[in-house]
Design the sequence.
């Protein structure tokens, strides 16, 4: 009897253990040396009624995306501690690694929680010497087969640009996305 | 109290076992001179489901069938001579430890390619395929192009004749096509 009791306590304790990844995001959201952005799916401005059934299921499976990032600038000169914390958080037993990439320009890692048919959450980490980006893509039963319908519904989307501005500016600053004038340049070149 | 120490020992033993189970190639993942891509089983499951939803050409179907049964894919490339030597030692050790058999080796002016397999049910189906391309054993530089040494391992149920679909989808080195008998 006593054995069962102890076993139960151990089990309960193990089940309640907070997830290091979730803790990392909660902590860094408040950290002044980090930037944070939560993007609800509704901001993407996808008009529900123009979608077919599959597209609607795909769009509704996504709830929100949470970014935290840290970069080397005039205020923050050293991000190695943040990278270290992020990497130890990624050893979270609640998540499974999908893939890891290391290239001369940086490193990346993708993890997920749930099952392959019904993903609850993806976590993406990217880093290089001067930048650390972590993102949690949260949803409900996201299925790989939804990716194409989701992308096709994005074509018809009218995102709330005012709300997305900080994100676009961040991405352009980091040269993840080309600056807007460059975009128009390449567009005109093509035509 | 005694129970607790037993549990603790179990936990410790398990964690030790878990770290032991890692492959010797993992050290390469943290080497700055090495570019690496590691793809796990769940990713292949998702990729196969994603492709299956598109239901298109036969090559995609072949990929879906194959991807379902893959446990992991690791690709390491480097231009560093020292790391290449290290890689070669790892391969030799790994092949001996895991009793892989040599499928073929080829040497030409482009370098030195070796394939090792862990045999499966039939001649065409293998449980593991390891490829090692060593260009340093040639002249070091090939027509002024930067040398690239590649170490690639695929673990799972692999049909050597259907590997071309995988190579195309995953953007893998063309050398791999040599194992296909067709």
Sequence:
């Amino acid at each position: 009897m006593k054995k069962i009791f102890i076993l139960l306590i151990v089990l309960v304790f193990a089940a309640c253990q907070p997830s290091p990844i979730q803790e990392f995001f909660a902590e860094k959201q408040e950290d002044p040396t980090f930037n944070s952005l939560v993007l609800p799916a509704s901001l993407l401005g996808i008009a529900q009624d123009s979608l077919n059934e599959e597209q609607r299921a795909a769009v509704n499976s996504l709830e929100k995306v949470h970014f935290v990032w840290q970069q080397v600038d005039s205020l923050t000169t050293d991000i190695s501690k943040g990278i270290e914390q992020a990497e130890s958080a990624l050893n979270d037993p609640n998540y499974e690694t999908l893939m890891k990439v290391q290239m001369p320009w940086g490193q990346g890692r993708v993890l997920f929680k749930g099952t392959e048919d019904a993903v609850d959450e993806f976590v993406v980490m990217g880093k290089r010497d001067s930048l650390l980006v972590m993102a949690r893509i949260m949803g409900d039963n996201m299925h790989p087969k939804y990716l194409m319908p989701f992308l096709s519904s994005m074509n018809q989307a009218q995102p709330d640009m005012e709300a997305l501005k900080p994100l676009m500016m961040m991405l352009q600053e980091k040269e993840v996305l080309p600056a807007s004038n460059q975009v128009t340049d390449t567009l005109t070149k093509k035509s | 109290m005694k129970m607790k120490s037993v549990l603790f020992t179990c936990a410790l033993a398990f964690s030790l076992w878990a770290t032991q189970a890692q492959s010797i190639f993992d050290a390469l993942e943290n080497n700055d001179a090495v570019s690496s891509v590691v793809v796990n089983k769940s990713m292949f499951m998702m990729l196969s489901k994603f492709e299956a939803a598109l239901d298109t050409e036969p090559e995609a179907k072949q990929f879906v069938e194959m991807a379902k049964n893959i446990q992991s894919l690791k690709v390491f490339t480097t231009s560093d001579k020292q790391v290449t030597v290290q890689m070669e030692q790892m391969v030799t050790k790994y092949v001996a430890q895991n009793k892989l058999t040599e499928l073929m080796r080829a040497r030409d002016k482009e370098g030195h390619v070796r394939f090792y397999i862990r045999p499966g049910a039939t001649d065409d189906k293998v449980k593991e395929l390891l490829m090692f391309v060593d260009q340093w054993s040639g002249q070091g530089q090939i027509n002024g192009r930067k040398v690239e040494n590649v170490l690639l391992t695929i673990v799972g149920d692999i049909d050597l004749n259907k590997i071309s679909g995988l190579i195309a989808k995953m953007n893998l080195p063309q050398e791999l096509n040599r194992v296909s008998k067709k």
Q: What stands out?
A: The first strand of chain A starts at residue 35 and ends at 40. Chain A is about 40% helix and 30% strand.
